[in-house]
Amino acid sequence: MREVSSHFFYLSYRLLGMPKWVGTPIINRPTPKAAEVFFQGSCTIDDIPLTINGCVGGKVNDIVVWRLRGTRSSLRIFNWYHLERQGEIDSSLILSEAESKPQAAYMAQLDKLAKQMNNEKVSLADFNDAFQIQKLVEEGLRRSIQI
């Protein structure tokens, strides 16, 4: 929950606003002190519903997906680096294959970090943004019930 969901909560926050928990998240841990292996919860951003579902374990590759659904189309990030648009407006990859490679993403992040270190304006998270997302994640874990 802490490692993966924070990325998508931050993206949702940047695009739509700060999520707020609704209801009670559900969690499963093998032991009380172990990391969670299952998490399911719901948030809202104003009147926009946001759901999060996650599980870990098994012997298959990770499936990591974030989707923003609109009335006519949606955006989907999958496997961390691929961005596509689906729906009535267009159904295509937004990033090229070259832009979707992990090395290209890392290089772009390092370029932004260098600009940030030179006091240039960039779209990286600052410490306050990161702290707000950390508090959101921790609140979800604190509010959760064990199944």
Descriptive account of the structure:
By secondary structure, the protein is of the alpha+beta class. It is 33% helix and 31% strand. The chain has helices at 2-16, 102-117, 127-143, and strands at residues 20-28, 38-45, 48-55, 65-69, 73-78, 82-87, 92-93, 145-146. The chain has a 4-stranded mixed sheet, covered by helices on one side. The longest helix is centred in the last third of the chain and has 17 residues, at 127-143.
Which secondary-structure class do the elements indicate?
alpha+beta
Q: State the domain count.
A: 1
**Total of DSSP H or I helical runs spanning 4+ residues:** 3
Major sheet attributes: 4 strands, mixed
Proportion of residues in helical segments: 25-40%
Low-confidence stretches: none
How would you spell out the order of helices and strands?
A: HEEEEEEEHHE
Give the CATH topology: Dihydrodipicolinate Reductase, domain 2
Broad shape: globular
- In whole angstroms, the N-to-C terminal distance is 16 Å
Report a brief summary of the structure.
With 147 residues, the protein is α+β, with helices and mostly antiparallel strands. Helix content is 33%, strand content 31%.
What topology emerges from the helices and strands here?
Elements: H1 2-16, E1 20-28, E2 38-45, E3 48-55, E4 65-69, E5 73-78, E6 82-87, E7 92-93, H2 102-117, H3 127-143, E8 145-146
Parallel strand pairs: 1-8
Antiparallel strand pairs: 1-2, 2-3, 4-5, 5-6, 6-7
